[in-house]
Amino acid sequence: MEIDYSKHKQVVVIYPHPDDESFGTAGTVVKFREAGVPVTYLCGTLGEMGRNMGSPFFANRETLPEIRKQELIKACKEIDMDLQMLGYRDKTMEFEDEQKVADDLRQRIEELDASLVITFYPPHAVHPDHNAMGRAAFRAIRDMDAEKRPEVWANAISNGHEEILGSPDIVVDTKTVFQKKLNALKAHKSQIDGMLQKVRKGNEELSEFDLALRHFRYETYHTVNFNE
Amino acid sequence: MESINLNKVQEYLDQWTNKPVYVHVETTNGAYAKHFDANAYNVGAYVRNAQITYTQGKIVEQEGAYRVGLKHEIGWIYAEGLTDFEFNENNQLLMAGHDADGRLMVAMQLSEKPFNY
Q1: Is any Cβ of chain A less than 8 angstroms from the Cβ of B109?
Q2: pLDDT digits (tens, 9 = 90+) for A208-220
Q3: Which of A39, A45, A205, B70 would be a feasible disulfide site paired with B77, CB 3.0-4.6 Å?
């Protein structure tokens, strides 16, 4: 399916962690930006509870939040995406008052006048923060007036989700813009270095670009219809 | 952080005996344990800024890893598997256990002032 990126006037991306945007949707964001469409990231937390401290250490529990905040800012610059940090805390999203989170999201979505929201598909998103953020975003959109309601593309990443949801109906091949996606991924140095090392085993002959392309090339979404 | 020095950590623990301090304790095997291994099970616990006054704080070594136990008036706090420590510029004693790839598995931290929240 050919996607007409220019038909949208504003995209809002809603995820809980610095790096969710780079893994899940950075190539799609670049395609929207190249079509002249503004994109804003509402990032829930600073990934304060990340586990990668490096070997040798580059962080500890108390210094990690600022490191990941700077990585997030850099990644958003790489793909020319506006950023709003929502100030929640990593691993605690599901314990917040969901309606309050949804009300805040709805206000921001309405203020930006979004025509498309990209978020996680609950409960098919593995990490409790992913599912909680997706639930709050879905609730925010459900709470909106039907005529103001944006289109919704949701990422499902759990094992076996296709048996329930079917195949994704939007598949973005990011190959032509992959250098920018890779730049965004690499901005999250605290997260990506270990991951690339892990998938490097058995693929020593591949360049970093080709290795990353193999794993992160396609960005897939299920569209969700709230008007039924 | 650097490898735990038992005597140094014991000195830091002793300075706060019978004084109110804030404690951070966590342990985790990550949010993706079950995702990557269907037989695995996600476990974790997290306490940030519980205030306690311990009457005895002690670090014990066994086979290169450390346990720290804090005894207080009405109970205990302890952490196991600690390997590294740092006393930072904010006068916070940070202790953590990491796996071979530098991933945090357990942490215990003490501070006179609350940790950022």
Answers
A1: yes
A2: 999 999 999 999 9
A3: B70
- Best mutation site among B90, B103, B117 for testing chain A: the one with the most A CBs within 10 Å? B103
**Cβ-based neighbours of A29, under 8 Å, separated by 6 or more:** A11, A13, A21, A39, A79, A80, A81
What φ, ψ does residue A187 adopt, rounded to 5°? Answer: -65, -30
Task: Establish if B30 touches chain A: CB-CB under 8 angstroms.
Answer: yes
Q: Find the mean pLDDT for residues B103-109.
A: 97
Question: Nearest chain A Cα to B101, which residue?
Answer: A55
Its pTM stands at 0.94
Class of domain B2-56+82-111: mainly beta
Q: Residue B33 in contact with residue B40, Cβ under 8 Å?
A: yes
CATH code of A129's domain: 3.40.50.10320
Q: For residue A199, is pLDDT > 90? A: no
Spell out which residues of chain A touch residue B86, defining contact as CB-CB under 8 Å: 60
Q: Is the reported ipTM for this assembly greater than 0.85?
A: yes
Contact assessment for residue A74 and residue A41, using Cβ atoms and an 8 Å cutoff: no
Classify residue A166 by its DSSP letter: -
Residue A155: helix, strand or coil by DSSP?
strand
Q: Which DSSP string do the residues of B8-77 spell out, in sequence order?
A: HHHHHHHHTTTSEEEEEEEEE--TTHHHH-TT----EEEEEEEEEEEEEEEEEEETTEEEEEEEETTEEE
What pLDDT is attached to residue A1? Answer: 64
Q: Element (H or E) spanning A91, and its range? A: none
Domain that includes residue A126, residue range:
5-224
8-state DSSP, A203: -
B102–A56 CB contact, under 8 Å: yes
CA distance A158 to chain B (A): 7
User: Considering CB atoms only, which of B100, B102, B107 is closest to A57?
Assistant: B102
Look at A194 and B101 and tell me if their CB atoms are within 8 Å. Answer: yes
DSSP, res B114: P
User: What's the structural domain count of chain A?
Assistant: 1
Q: Around A122, how many Cα atoms within 13 Å sit in the side-chain half-sphere?
A: 16
Element (H, E) at A195: helix A189-200
